[in-house]
Amino acid sequence: MGQVYYKTSEEIAIIQVNCMLVSKTLAYVGSLLKPGVTGAFVDAKAEEFIRDHDALPGFKNLYGFPSTLCISLNEGVVHGIPSDIEFKDDDIVSVDCGVYNNEFFGDAAFTFAFPEVSDETMDLLHTTNQSLYLGIEQARSGNRIGDISNAIQHHCERVNGYGIVRELVGHGLGRNLHEGPEVPNFGSRGRGHKMQEGLVIAIEPMVNMGKRHVKQSDDGWTIVTRDGKPSAHFEHTIAVTDGEPIILSDHSIVEEALKNNAEIKNFSIKK
Ligand code: MG
Ligand code: MG
Q: Is 206 exposed, middle or buried (0-12, 13-18, 19+ CB in 10 A)?
């Protein structure tokens, strides 16, 4: 994934503005979602929203990806291409969004749930989201990436019996969407890159209801679970400081948007 670049506080401030625009875009997406709406519609609205804020969609045309959002339904893990398929009242919808502005990126993701999603699947979403914050707690100067990885893996696999995807990982972020270090969602405490103040990383657990194994679908992009069971994905971009990590994106505004949309389940971000 390449070189590790430490950021100045000025650079982190730019990334924070970008990540907040990502969060506002996810909140906007959350306000648009209802059964019958398509991913392609939501994607077009998200692109318009980002451009109206004088930024560029971060994913579009990167590595040849065709869209503003990655929208991955149900057994889709990540990298789904927004399509003309209508959302159903029992879908879970993972939306990953990036923006680019002032020479830096921003990146975050949220999994939305329609009203008929089962309690079992809601537990998967809650656990995945909890593991994101458990990972973030470990993102401290002097700690190692493996401390983040292990916190996420322990909570999802050991405590809750889910499968952690191995093939896709979190990443450093800055002038590139993907920089070093890799931030796996599995690993050993005390191993990996030693974090210092100024490191900016995207932490993004991808957690499967069933087994951890995934495959690429026929569209050449979407990663799906091999067993066809659902998968959840939550992501924040954070900055390592000499104290508490700073979460540069903000899911609480997404949660606020859901409270005003009766067509989507409310989602309490910290349980
Ligand atoms: Mg992302
Ligand atoms: Mg990412």
A: buried
Indicate which ligand has the atom closest to the C-alpha of 202: 2
Cα 107 to ligand 2 centre (Å): 6
Q: How far out from the chain centre does Cα 110 lie?
A: 6
Where exactly are the structural domains of the chain? 9-258
Structure confidence by residue, pLDDT tens digits, 179-215: 999 999 999 999 999 999 999 999 999 999 999 999 9
Cβ–Cβ under 8 Å, residues 150 and 192: no
pTM: 0.96
pLDDT of residue 135: 98
CA of 83 to the centre of ligand 1 (A): 18
pLDDT over 60 (residue 269): no
CATH superfamily of 9-258: Creatinase/methionine aminopeptidase superfamily (3.90.230.10)
